[in-house]
Design goal:
α3 packs across α4. It is built from six helices and ten strands, in the order βββαββαβαααβαβββ. It is α/β, with parallel strands linked by helices. The structure holds adenosine-5'-diphosphate (ADP) and magnesium ion. It comes from Streptomyces morookaense (Streptoverticillium morookaense).
């Protein structure tokens, strides 16, 4: 099957005083639609950098990043932004929800930015939130009225709004206890199947890797099979 996300020999450096720090060292990774790949590794090993490059938020020094069949390197910034909005769902560690909006409105805000039909967007938002396990009452709550696990569910539903082919998830359970973390990981596995996303989950918590189709390890910018 064609990969929905492919990184080919990607190298990324950051300036570090008068030297450079190699955060990603010739990293290659291909993820198929409907596949959940977990990347484990200690803090500072390059996991978030990997996601930032895959999300086209950072341009690598060298190598290719192919999203939904398009090589992103040569794309002008506007095209990259559009590809990112349409094809990539991003879930960060902190839910980054807007404090004044209800769960449904968090998703509608995304639709609004895209200029979509409001009524269709509302129906889809309700459906997505339902599918991540939030009942009608919870869908009307604001972030401070939801638990950490529920906020991450909203976050995941929001990332799925645009029907992305790639889902990138950075340490989604770090603010949760083990059981809630396990539930969020199970949800990610289910979402990956149902929506057919090519999902990359990065975590330093090896206890959460059981649901993944494949587990890779990041060590000092090198990605390897354990
Ligand atoms: P992880 O997510 O696995 O903790 P990161 O990708 O955040 O790892 O970081 C990898 C390495 O790159 C670390 O040594 C980190 O200090 C460094 N780094 C990350 N972001 C930046 C940045 N914006 N500027 C300089 N160095 C960075
Ligand atoms: Mg990180």
């Amino acid at each position: 099957m064609t990969a929905a996300l492919a990184l080919e020999s990607v190298t990324l450096t950051y300036p570090d005083g008068d030297r450079t720090l190699t955060a990603l060292d010739a990293v290659s990774l291909a993820v198929a639609p409907g596949e959940l790949v977990a990347v484990a590794g200690p803090s500072g090993s390059g996991k978030s950098s990997l996601l930032a490059v895959a999300a086209t938020l950072l341009r690598p020094d060298s190598g290719r990043v192919v999203v939904a069949g398009r090589d992103t390197a040569g794309l002008p910034e506007r095209e990259r932004t559009r590809l990112r909005r349409e094809q990539i769902g991003i879930v960060f560690q902190q839910a980054n929800l807007l404090p004044s909006l209800t769960a449904v409105e968090q998703l509608l805000a995304v639709e609004h930015l895209r200029g979509g039909n409001v009524r269709a967007a509302r129906a889809r938002a309700e459906e997505l939130l339902e599918s991540v396990g939030l009942d009608a009452a919870k869908r009307r709550r604001r972030p401070h009225q939801l638990s950490g696990g529920e906020r991450q569910r909203v976050n995941i539903a929001r990332a799925l709004c645009t029907g992305p082919s790639v889902l990138l998830v950075d340490e989604p359970t770090s603010a949760l206890d083990h059981e809630r973390g396990e539930q969020v990981t199970a949800l990610l596995s289910e979402v990956t199947r149902r929506h057919g996303t090519a999902t990359v989950l990065v975590t330093h918590d090896r206890a959460l890797l059981g649901r993944a189709d494949r587990v890779l390890t990041m060590t000092d910018g090198h990605l390897s099979t354990p």
